[in-house]
Specification:
The structure is a homotetramer.
Chain A lengths: L10 E7 L3 H16 L5 E8 L3 H11 L3 E3 L2 H6 L5 E4 L6 H10 L3 E5 L6 H16 L4 E4 L6 H11 L6 E9 L16 H4 L3 H17 L3 E9 L4 E5 L11 E8 L5 E8 L4 E7 L8 E8 L2 E6 L5 E6 L9 E5 L22 H16 L7 H19 L5 E2 L3
Parallel strand pairs in A: 1-2, 1-4, 2-3, 4-5, 5-6, 7-12
Antiparallel strand pairs in A: 7-13, 8-11, 8-17, 9-10, 11-12, 13-14, 14-15, 15-16
Helix pairs in contact in A: 1-9, 4-5, 5-10, 6-8, 8-10
Pfam families (chains A, B, C, D): GFO_IDH_MocA, GFO_IDH_MocA_C3
InterPro entries (chains A, B, C, D): Gfo/Idh/MocA-like_OxRdtase_N (IPR000683), Gfo/Idh/MocA_oxidrdct_glycsds (IPR050463), GFO_IDH_MocA-like_dom (IPR055170), NAD(P)-bd_dom_sf (IPR036291)
GO molecular function, one term (chains A, B, C, D): nucleotide binding
């Protein structure tokens, strides 16, 4: 029998910048999304970009990209690239994203949107102009695409929680508990912008606002750097979490190890946040709880297929937090996957993100989360840093 | 066969003030402690005191007290009372405790020690003078006597956590989520001093400091009263959590519904606290987690027989939070109870508290937690209120 | 003020035989029940009986019994004893219970009712005759009195599960995993009747039938004794689980270490059972799950304040096992205890058992579980042993 | 920059038969494995085969197969196919697998290996002959490739459990609880061979023997069909779990709805099994517990990234089941995936299965699980059916 007829779907050429952890995750997303979801466009993995020629060529072959580039400007200039996917550290986001938008490309930018509010504002402005030309700009808060989170959002929107009283979020990791863990790029302000705050805090601020459906209006914050100096990595340490400590040389840690902040949502609900890389035994414990007058929701990323819901309108004798296994065909994104009860994993959030972006590009609808959403998160992070510097004083988040 | 020989143990006459929820719990403690533990003194339930003659007489009969009094001064004056156990709302603690101490009695005082720092300071001074006369004064932070908490304290003391990085504590309840729940005494500042802060926050501040083995040195805080006005209770509402809403009359809620605060421990560890009565579905969720360089501990009062421990010195492939069922005969207090695996409950903390107090009285050792410990908690609560009033600014806790 | 007026409630004199683990637990029940529940009769702890004069006198004093006896016939003969509470090993149950019933006393007999079906049948006959004289005979399946179990029974009775399909029960302990644990009385057939089967299996057979509301009609079984010989205890080992291994002498283990059996309920539901003392790490893991067409229930004695319920009539997207904290005032037995969220423990089952028995004696209603219920369990255990001897063949349980 | 150099790795052409649920899962495995793992051969998705020309062509395009065939003999005959991956119902496994082996192809065959022992024996014989020619034949017990299961096997092999006492396994689903769910192919003996037994029981028998490292030597079993008649599906119902009920026509369910069996392992350990599709609320609850003299392990497929381990050699006060998050780089298969704490899902088992098969083909090592392992499972299932027919009598499993 013959080869299946070539699909007649139009292609959407993707060019990706960066090929470390996020690059691998996004690659898995692009490789899979068209095979699982029925999309109006066919994502084509056109080219990948990185500075080291050998490494980027190896990454292209490994992850399935058709071509490799060493200059992101060349990537943007390619005719076969309609969408630029930015997976680099935060210090380069603004420059690449703005250039890509100005070149007429759609953009997906990893979180946090930028390392400063000023950069994020410039990106939003570029996205606004591009939007008028029909381009889409999305920021990569991938956890919104966890089916349990997406289902939780639906439940909040449907009024299952009633008036919101509390949002309680923490993101606990432990990968730098050891003081001898080396000084990788994520621990240096010039590359990462901030530490646990920008890396983990950005996720939980976005999720809190997304799930609540309302912004934070002010915060009070404490931050801390427990280990002020660490061994320098053996070689270059710009491409991942890892890196071997190399010899006696040490350098200063210039970002926060942990950030605690509390605040008020627009509705008057209280919110508490904790982001840390020093919670021994907690590997990826992004935990969220929302309490409302009619019910509560709870989630833990370490058990990402589960959502816990308490219906406070039920008789007290029969009420309690129920563990919803978010794997039913009717749950968000699940129609494309396996029968009920078969777990998804972390990387599926990138497949779902790719799906939602492709749909938005095709329908020319406003993407979610937009660069404006990313800017709002950036403003919260800036308010957190300001409060931490000003003796924790309550600091409004500009609207 | 004849009646068992009367014990030759000297009696310790107990007089209790108050007979609501705490009175019932303390009664169960006094009734049970000598039957389960082998004590040097025989606690005798000499007299109970309350303002309503009929009610206090009924309480005496129900709970097994030999006599009833309507004036706490008369109770203190009784020759058969050597220990005064104060279970009233916080506004009367200082007066009763100081009078009892001055009358030469030992004192057990429910938490919070007082409704203000000034009262607590006076109580500490009275306890100091009484101590010179050999009297014991203890404050009733009963959760220290949960076997899992006591075992956790041992593990921290033994260095199982190493350098402490985080203390994370919350106490979540939901009994006033309904805006029509009536304005009981616990919601009125003149009786309760504060709301969730004094009731729940006092417990978690004490536990955080106890488990860490070090004090909080400063805090930043947010408080909130979500429901500002509630129906007045039908009758008197001074005797418990309960009360039926009665008619259209409403009154102002004059305490906090929720309090969020963060701070620094003396060692530099970060601490976060949340106390609320608005967490729908959380009934008695006092949760504690401590993260150190060598390990972590976690506890939830809703599963009070369990302690979770992560040993960070183990190989990562085999490490994880282990659920220790704290029911082994070698665990604190367990030698007196049931075989391994048989759960204890809430009220056992009062039995254990009675045991520790009787042992301290007999041995004339310093009781723990002392009135000074109670004062320290009071100072933290005062700093929390000050910070909340001053726009969350970081507020030192006086040493 | 004067002593509270003596209660005018009629007394119910209790005489207890045995003072080991079960004796202590029953004592705590009798000591507490009248203080917590409002009963029509006042239980009086009249006398306790044991063979060793010094030991029984010490037990009387420790546990609060007014008198001590060394001959159970003398105990039964006492005028101040109206209820005989039998806490001895199973080999003496029949003789004592029948004598007590014939002497006109009410009887509470620890489980298993007897060591053989024949004994149990004689006890049922004695109870039947006594019932005509207004006496009450109850068997001590205390776990029925766990609030979560009692609430589960209500839910099944209310039809929340619909047609029953599966009952899945296991009772896992680990106290004899060590082959050097000594040969205590519970490991000797002449005293204990059987091993895990009678000790643990009796509980789970009773609970399965109680919760389902229907009997097992047949079983297929496997039993095993993993460790066939153990060191003899140092001294007498008749008074508890414990005992120190003493020297080189060894004796044969003559009971089962573990029993696995499956069967059919009267309705056609399938049931599976496992009782073992060799499940390392499981201390008291009595687990039950029932699956019906409309819902499911799950329980674990190691978390005895919780009941898990899945409502299969809800939309699949929002359904899941909910954790009901069975501590609401409206839950069975809870009206007498603490506010919502405050945990009860193992020993409360004995307080509740005492309450239900006192109420049955006062109202002269049929007690539950009756001796006939105990006999039915005994018949199941006998069928299990018969099946295990006959190569697992399916063995009917006589009606 | 130019396209990355074509890889020089030799290709391994894969031809897959079947494109329903298992076909989709295997496709995801083949599509991903070479992108994530560094393999010596490059899997090429050469052709897919199904009976319906349009459907198979659509499946080829959707899942990324280069060609489509409608006759499995044609698929086997293709020069670009070196490995035949069989994802059809069990009734066709033997014919296809034997033909493929005789044609010189490697074979991966979904579980259960066959619908009868005779078929399975013929397949093992074919595999034995093929092995002499250097061909590999593997059976698809994919759950062995869950990292937690693979890690558990390592721990057992390393002696962490000591002498094994208990294996306790259940596989609970609920997709046919509704009596109106239609009569799909999985409910008809002629296609599926058996019901819950072959579908779910095969998995848990394989896992029990794999983890224990020893075979079952005999079983006693009960099976049941709760709902004996169901509506016929609207159209053809051969391609999945699903199917819409169509009209009034009904047909008999000819397989078991549930199977309970117990048995003995070669070492004398006891094992219990339950497979059911009638456990309301349990979606994919494959649960395993092993208890040994030195420790215990527990696993639940609904939380597949976790393994629970109790180390019984630790002091009792600090011991308990620890939750190991099996996402460390050092855990099996994890070196190729994400940083610690990032969850994998169900489909990753197929990626890992593909990896292990490719490695075995390249190294010409004995694959695991082999067809002989599949035959052994088949013999257990046959013994289960024989015991169930013979009144549960204990039935040896032939070696």
């Amino acid at each position: 029998m013959q080869r299946p007829a070539e699909t007649t779907k139009p292609a959407l050429g993707v060019g990706m910048v960066g090929y470390a952890f996020m690059g691998a995750a996004h690659s898995q997303g692009w490789r899979t999304v068209g095979r699982v979801f029925d999309l109006p466009l066919r994502p084509a993995m056109a080219a990948i970009c990185g500075r080291d020629p050998d490494a980027v060529r190896a990454a292209a072959e490994k992850h399935g990209w058709a071509a490799a580039e060493t200059d992101w400007r060349a990537l943007i200039a390619r005719d076969d690239v309609q969408l630029v996917d930015i997976c680099t550290p935060g210090d380069s986001h603004a420059e690449i994203a703005i250039a890509a938008l100005e070149a007429g490309k759609h953009v997906l930018c990893e979180k946090p949107l930028a390392n400063s509010v000023a950069e994020a504002e410039a990106m939003v402005e570029a996205a606004r102009r591009a939007r008028e030309r029909g381009q889409i700009a999305m920021v990569g808060f991938n956890y919104r695409r966890t089916p349990a989170i997406a289902h939780a959002r639906r439940m909040v929107r449907d009024g299952r929680l009633g008036v919101l009283r509390h949002v309680r979020v923490s993101y606990l990791q432990d990968w730098i508990v050891d003081p001898e863990f080396p000084l990788v790029w994520r621990l240096r302000r010039e590359h990462a912008g901030s530490g646990a705050l920008g890396d983990l805090g950005a996720h939980i601020v976005d999720l809190a606002q997304y799930l609540a459906g309302e912004p934070l209006v002010g915060v009070s914050a404490l931050t801390e750097t427990f280990v002020r100096e660490r061994p320098l990595p053996a070689g270059t340490a710009t491409t991942g979490l890892g890196g071997q400590a190399g010899g006696a040389a040490r350098g200063p840690v210039t970002v926060d190890d942990a950030a605690l902040f509390s605040g008020r949502m627009a509705s008057g609900a209280l919110a508490s946040f904790e982001a840390t890389r020093f919670a021994a035994g907690r590997k990826n414990a992004l935990r969220i709880e929302l309490n409302g007058e009619r019910g509560s929701l709870a989630f833990d990323l370490e058990r990402l297929n589960e959502l816990h819901f308490h219906d406070h309108t039920e008789p007290a004798t029969d009420a309690g937090f129920r563990r919803i296994l978010v794997t039913e065909p009717e749950h968000p994104y699940l129609e494309a996957w396996w029968p009920a009860g078969h777990a998804l994993g972390y990387e599926h959030t990138f497949v779902h993100q790719a799906r939602d972006l492709v749909l938005a590009i095709d329908a020319r609808t406003e993407p979610e989360p937009s660069f404006a959403d990313g800017l709002q998160v950036q403003r919260v992070l800036a308010a957190v840093e300001e409060s931490a510097e000003k003796n924790c004083v309550y600091t409004p988040v500009p609207a």
